[in-house]
Amino acid sequence: MLPVAQVIAFRGPIAVVFGALALVFLLLALARPMRVFALTLALVLGAAAVVNGGILAGRGLGNDAMPEKTETSIRVLTWNTAGSATTADTIAQIAVAMRADIVTLPETTIQTGEQVAVTMRELGAPMWAHHAAYGEYGVDGWDATSTTMLISPELGDYSVIASSQDGTSNTSTVPSAVAMPVDGQGPTVVAAHAVAPRGEYMQAWRDDLQWLADQCASGNVILAGDFNATLDHMQGMGVDGGVLGRCGATTVETGNGAVGTWPTAMPALLGAPIDHILATPDWTATGSAVLTSLDGQGGDHRPLVVQLEPSGN
């Protein structure tokens, strides 16, 4: 609910503020007339700081150790590029450096996606580009009405389903793209983009999160993108042990669940972890990284990469 949803997204700053206020009231407790009152508030605020800090620590405060790729592993990269704020060359270089097999790019047009694919091919990592779009993006200059994904040919042929392209079953305001393997083998890949929880879009935001949860209701699914939601917002939306539908939080499994991906103007541990790579139990996360090296170079989101292994391995 507004404004709790917006405030709770920033657990890092909340913990810091509670801790600072606890220290203030400890100092005020030196004054005898208000000692009991000040000590009581210091205790409450200190407990709040510890609880929030404990939640963050439990989700993972940062671990960029990525294991070596194996013959069966898949690396997934997601990055809200903020449209033209991030160049195709930059996207391609990061994707190749991270040896990504799947790249989901909210706020990226198919024209940019095709340029990324061409550059990656020239760098020795060919990709097929797919997308879903609403309206005439490029006419109004709002690249958020397009979501692009790149999938390595080594994973087989993929096709975006018709309901993603025509919007009959999709997120409400900015599009997501659902790609399925043509031969029926391999995971369904969802490039996710939920609308931001602004005042006029609160119900649309809730509906978007439910739609994304429904994509993980069954089957073999990898769900990656900008959810505009933290794990707190997904409470109660998981089934069978998942955090969103049957999908689990790969960054929590690998020690990065509390590392903020937005905005890049804030230190990572003070930001909001609203970009996610989720997967059904068919996959086990073995490593992840939130890339901070591009902070301040255009986009306001950090790239996130996760390595997955088939759970049977």
TrEMBL record:
<dbReference type="InterPro" id="IPR036691">
    <property type="entry name" value="Endo/exonu/phosph_ase_sf"/>
</dbReference>
<keyword id="KW-0378">Hydrolase</keyword>
<dbReference type="InterPro" id="IPR005135">
    <property type="entry name" value="Endo/exonuclease/phosphatase"/>
</dbReference>
<keyword id="KW-1133">Transmembrane helix</keyword>
<keyword id="KW-0255">Endonuclease</keyword>
<protein>
    <submittedName>
        <fullName>Endonuclease/exonuclease/phosphatase family protein</fullName>
    </submittedName>
</protein>
<dbReference type="GO" id="GO:0004519">
    <property type="term" value="F:endonuclease activity"/>
</dbReference>
<keyword id="KW-0472">Membrane</keyword>
<keyword id="KW-0812">Transmembrane</keyword>
<feature type="transmembrane region" description="Helical">
    <location>
        <begin position="37"/>
        <end position="57"/>
    </location>
</feature>
<keyword id="KW-0540">Nuclease</keyword>
<feature type="domain" description="Endonuclease/exonuclease/phosphatase">
    <location>
        <begin position="77"/>
        <end position="295"/>
    </location>
</feature>
<feature type="transmembrane region" description="Helical">
    <location>
        <begin position="12"/>
        <end position="31"/>
    </location>
</feature>
<dbReference type="Pfam" id="PF03372">
    <property type="entry name" value="Exo_endo_phos"/>
</dbReference>
